[in-house]
C-alpha cells in the first residue's frame, strides 16, 4: 500500500486553524529575533532512519504478540517506511539489520526505496545471535572471543554486511557487541578488550574509503557482570584505535541510571567523534520505549548539545540518526509516528534556545537566567512549526490523525491478513 499526496491533502482538510496557530507563533518568535523560515527549513530537512526491526510488533525478549497486517518481508517493511515518510516527511531513511533483513531481491527493494524517497542509512551487523548455517557459536563472544576462528567468523560477517550495504547505497556500518561476562573471573578484561580492538581494526581497514564505522556501547545486558564495550569512553578509545572514520554511536537507552547523556554528547562532538544516534526512551534500563514518552526534557537538553555541536564542531561528521525503539503493545507505525514527532519537537525547541543570551548569562554566572532561557524554549508549543515543515513537503498536518482517518492499518490488514508475524527481532 502507498499513500498519495492527494489522500494526505484530503485527510488534512481545511488548514485555517493551522494558519492561525502558525501565524500567531511565527509573529511571536519573530518579535524575539527568531528566523522562523530557516527554523522551519531545518525541521523539514531533518530526517531520521527507521529501523527495519521496529516495523513489526516485535517487542521484548519475553514475548511476541502477533500484530495484524504487519510486514512479513523486507519489501513490505519498506512499504511501511514509505507510509511513515509520506505522512511525516521525516522518515526518509531506513536502517537494516543483517541477517534479520537481508535483501533477497535487491532491485525490488531499491525500487520501493526510490519510489518512496527513502535512502539506506547505517547498516547493522549481528554477532549477538547464532546465525543459521554458521560454523561457530557466539555463546562466549564474537569479536572478543578467545578463539581466533570465532573472531574471524564475526569479522567476516561484518565484511559481508558491508558488501550488502554497498549494494544499497549505505555509507556506514554500526556494530553493537553483546560480548562480556556474567560472572566475575569469567574472562580477562584486558585480553577481551585487546581482542575487540584488533577485530574492530580488521573490520575498519576493510571498509570502503567512503564508509565509516559506528561503535555502539552499552553497560550491561545480555551480560550482567561486564560488557566489553561498556561505555562511551571505551567506544571512543576503540574508534581512535581504528582511525578517522570510526566514531562512537550513542543509544539513549545504553546508560546507567541518571547518566548525564547530554554531557557525553558534548564531549564526543568536541572531539569530532560522535557518529550516530539511536533514539528511544526508558524508565529503568534499555527499555526501548517510544521517544519522548518518559523524559522529554532530558531529550531537549540532549538536543541542545547536538545543535550546539552541529554549529560549532565542523570536524564532527553529519550524524546517522536512527530510532531504536520497539515493544509489543502499540501499533508499530503509530508508535514510530509518535517517536518521530517527539524527536522533531525536541529539535525544534533546542533550535529556539537563545544561544547568545545563554552564553552571556553563563559569563555573568546568572544561574537563574540560564535556566529561564532553556525553559523559555522548552515551554514553547512548537507543534505549528512541525506542522508547517511537514506541509511544506506534502506531509500530513497531523500524521497520527491522518493514519487513522485514512484507515492505513485496516488497509494493511486487508492486504496482508489478520495473523501476521514480522521477521526480525
Ligand atoms: C542493543 C541494540 C543495538 C542492536 C539493537 C537491536 O541493545 O540497541 O543497537 O542492534 O538493539
Ligand atoms: Mn541501539
Ligand atoms: Mn539497545
Question: What is shown here, in short?
Answer:
Keywords: Isomerase, Manganese, Metal-binding. The protein is α/β, with parallel strands linked by helices and 425 residues long.
How does this model look, in words?
The chain has 425 residues and is an alpha/beta fold. It is 48% helix and 9% strand. It has 16 helices and 11 strands. Helix 3 packs across helix 14 (383-392), helix 4 (74-88) runs parallel beside helix 5 (106-116) and helix 12 (355-363) packs antiparallel against helix 13 (367-378). One manganese (II) ion is lined by residues 251, 253-254, 286, 324. GO terms for molecular function: isomerase activity; metal ion binding.
Average pLDDT value? Answer: 96
Question: What gross morphology would you assign?
Answer: globular
Look up the CATH topology of the domain at 46-337.
TIM Barrel
Q: Helical percent range?
A: 40-55%
| First-to-last CA distance | 23 Å
Keywords: Isomerase, Manganese, Metal-binding
Protein name: L-rhamnose isomerase / sugar isomerase
GO molecular function: isomerase activity; metal ion binding
Organism: Neolewinella agarilytica
Amino acid at each position: 500500500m502507498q499513500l498519495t499526496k492527494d489522500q494526505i491533502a484530503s485527510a488534512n482538510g481545511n488548514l485555517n486553524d493551522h494558519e492561525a496557530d502558525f501565524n500567531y507563533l511565527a509573529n511571536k518568535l519573530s518579535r524575539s529575533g527568531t528566523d522562523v523560515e530557516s527554523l522551519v527549513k531545518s525541521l523539514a530537512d531533518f530526517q531520521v532512519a527507521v529501523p527495519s526491526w521496529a516495523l513489526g510488533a516485535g517487542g521484548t525478549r519475553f514475548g511476541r504478540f502477533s500484530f495484524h497486517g504487519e510486514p512479513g518481508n523486507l519489501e513490505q517493511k519498506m512499504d511501511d517506511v514509505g507510509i511513515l515518510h509520506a505522512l511525516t516527511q521525516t522518515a526518509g531513511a531506513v536502517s537494516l539489520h543483517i541477517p534479520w533483513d537481508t535483501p533477497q531481491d535487491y532491485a525490488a527493494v531499491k525500487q520501493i526505496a526510490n519510489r518512496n524517497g527513502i535512502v539506506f542509512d547505517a547498516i547493522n551487523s549481528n554477532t549477538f545471535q547464532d546465525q543459521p548455517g554458521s560454523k561457530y557459536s557466539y555463546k562466549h563472544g564474537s569479536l572478543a572471543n578467545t578463539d581466533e576462528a570465532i573472531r574471524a567468523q564475526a569479522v567476516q560477517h561484518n565484511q559481508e554486511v558491508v558488501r550488502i550495504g554497498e549494494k544499497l547505497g549505505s555509507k556506514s556500518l554500526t556494530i553493537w557487541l553483546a560480548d562480556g561476562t556474567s560472572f566475575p573471573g569469567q574472562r580477562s578484561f584486558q585480553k577481551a578488550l585487546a581482542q575487540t580492538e584488533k577485530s574492530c581494526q580488521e573490520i575498519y581497514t576493510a571498509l570502503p574509503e567512503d564508509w565509516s564505522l559506528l561503535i555502539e556501547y552499552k553497560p550491561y545486558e545480555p551480560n550482567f557482570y561486564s560488557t566489553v564495550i561498556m561505555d562511551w569512553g571505551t567506544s571512543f578509545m576503540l574508534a581512535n584505535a581504528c582511525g578517522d572514520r570510526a566514531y562512537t554511536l550513542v543509544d539513549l537507552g545504553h546508560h546507567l541510571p541518571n547518566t548525564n547523556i547530554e554531557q557525553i554528547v558534548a564531549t564526543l562532538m568536541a572531539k569530532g567523534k560522535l557518529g550516530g544516534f539511536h533514539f528511544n526512551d526508558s524508565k529503568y534500563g534499555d527499555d526501548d520505549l517510544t521517544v519522548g514518552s518518559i523524559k522529554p526534557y532530558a531529550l531537549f537538553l540532549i538536543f541542545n548539545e547536538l545543535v550546539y555541536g552541529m554549529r560549532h564542531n565542523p570536524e564532527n561528521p553529519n550524524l546517522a540518526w536512527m530510532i531504536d525503539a520497539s515493544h509489543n503493545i502499540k501499533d508499530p507505525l503509530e508508535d514510530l509516528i509518535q517517536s518521530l514527532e517527539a524527536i522533531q519537537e525536541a529539535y525544534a525547541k533546542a533550535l529556539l534556545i537563545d544561544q547568545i543570551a545563554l552564553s552571556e548569562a553563563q559569563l555573568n554566572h546568572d544561574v537563574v537566567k540560564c535556566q529561564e532561557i532553556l525553559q523559555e524554549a522548552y515551554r514553547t508549543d512548537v507543534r505549528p512549526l512541525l506542522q508547517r515543515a511537514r506541509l511544506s513537503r506534502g506531509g500530513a498536518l497531523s500524521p497520527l490523525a491522518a493514519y487513522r482517518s485514512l484507515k492505513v492499518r485496516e488497509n494493511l490488514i486487508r492486504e496482508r491478513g489478520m495473523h501476521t508475524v514480522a521477521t526480525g527481532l
